[in-house]
Amino acid sequence: MTARSLPSLSPRWSALTIVASALAALSLSLGAVGAQAAPTLSAVNLCVKKTNPGRGTIRLVSAKALCRKSERGVLLVASPGQDGVILQAEPGAAGKPGEKGAVGDQGPVGEKGPTGDKGPQGATGDKGPVGDKGPQGATGDKGPEGDKGPTGDKGPQGLEGLQGPIGLQGLTGDKGPQGPEGDKGPTGDKGPQGHEGDKGPTGDKGPQGPEGDKGPTGDKGPEGAPGPVGPSVSREIRGGGGSSLVEDGMGSRFFGPSIDIFTGTETAIQEVLPAGGTVSDLRVYLTGVPGPGNKYTFTVRRDPAGNTAPTSTEISCSMSGNGVGSASCESSASQKFEAGDAISILATESGSPTSRTIFFRLDFQP
Predict the structure, then answer these.
(1) Longest C-alpha distance within the chain, in Å?
(2) Cα-based distances in Å from 141 to 137, 144, 301
(3) What is the rounded CA–CA span in Å between residue 256 and residue 241?
(4) What is the CB neighbour count within 10 angstroms for residue 232?
């Protein structure tokens, strides 16, 4: 007898050749039973590894046994006949599914197994794209009007304005001389004295005679020397107020007497003195200190009459830091001013001083 081999066996089935030889011997023993016996069909169930079957173990199992999940079931069929033994290595076509059996009784519920350990937390997914902007909602109704806030405190009273200088009193003119008296008429000759007669009765008073003509006005006498000048009256020059500010980064800033504003143009803020005199004793006050390491300086400026070049005087003082008294400064220096000279106050800063309001005073002695 000869064995019919499968064409082009792959390595998967090479391990089955040993089993095929064993099956051929089994077929020969079946033929010895007798020629009168009917042909029989013999089969062997094998379990072969799915991966690397050439290196694994091939297990012979019974027809009702199941292969493992890592194995594949193989059916080898041996059919004795005139042509020898037929080896069927490939599974046949699947048969028709049998009828569904009756549903068996439900078995008892098994005990609940222990809860498995919690698996590791998965990585956070990427952030999704930002959605499109939704349409704008309708405008809400206007809310009720809030209560009126309390009235603020009354601000401090402003400084009293400067009193203007008193003008000089004019000289009293000399009294003119009295004009000469008119000429007296000639006296008549004296008659001889008679004897004294008896006193007669008092006669009636005669009428008053007419007034004589006014004599001519006499020549004007020479003008007398002027009298001594009366004593001069000193006054105070004041400036600054609510809008007079000094601050960081201001550069050069000018202030004038009797006005509470400032300007960067000196000639626009100057005050012209109507009379000459001496200016002295500068006193400057701030509403707070300049701050540590910062400084404000104030200088009296004089612009002589007819001269367009104002100059700084020696009347100057500075304040800085947080120390006691640093919110004010004084200077006892003085400067002579002529009538028609203009006066102003120059303010400068250094560091980064805090914004403050200023007030200043000067003495003026005509």
Answers:
(1) 246
(2) 12, 9, 61
(3) 11
(4) 13
Q: Which domains does the chain have, with CATH numbers?
A: 3-86 (no CATH), 235-365 (2.60.120.380)
Which token pair is 148? 């009126």
Classify residue 191 as exposed, middle or buried by CB count within 10 Å of its CB (0-12, 13-18, 19+). Answer: exposed
Stronger pLDDT, 196 or 348, i.e. the higher one: 348
Polymer length in residues for the chain: 366
Q: Count CB-CB contacts under 10 A for residue 360.
A: 22
31: exposed, middle or buried (C-beta count within 10 Å: 0-12, 13-18, 19+)?
middle
Burial class (CB in 10 A: 0-12, 13-18, 19+), 121: exposed
Amino acid in position 226:
P
Do 58 and 47 form a contact (C-beta atoms < 8 A)? yes
CA 347 to chain centre: 28
> From the centroid of its chain, how far is CA 184?
106
Using one digit for the tens of pLDDT, what is the confidence trace for 182-231?
787 787 788 687 677 787 787 788 788 788 788 788 788 687 565 454 44
Nearest one of 280, 162, 164, 170 to 230, comparing CA atoms = 170
Q: What percent of the chain has pLDDT over 90?
A: 27
* Cβ 341 vs Cβ 275: under 8 Å: no
**Structure tokens of 280?**
């002295």
Which strand (E) or helix (H) includes residue 11? helix 11-14
Taking only the tens place, the pLDDT of each residue in 287-342 is: 999 988 899 999 999 999 877 789 999 999 999 887 555 789 999 999 999 999 99
Q: What digits encode the pLDDT tens for the residues 241-281?
A: 889 999 999 999 999 998 889 999 888 899 999 999 999 99
Cα–Cα distance measured from residue 355 to residue 263, given in angstroms and rounded to the nearest whole number: 16
Residues 100-150: tens digit of each pLDDT: 878 878 878 878 878 888 878 878 878 878 878 878 878 878 878 878 878
Residue 241 falls in which region: left (phi positive, over 0), alpha (psi -120 to 50) or beta: left
Q: Report which of 250, 340, 263 is spatially closest to residue 295, judged by C-alpha positions.
A: 250
Q: Answer for the pair 312, 295: CB distance below 8 angstroms, yes or no.
A: no
> Per DSSP, what are the bridge partners of residue 235?
364
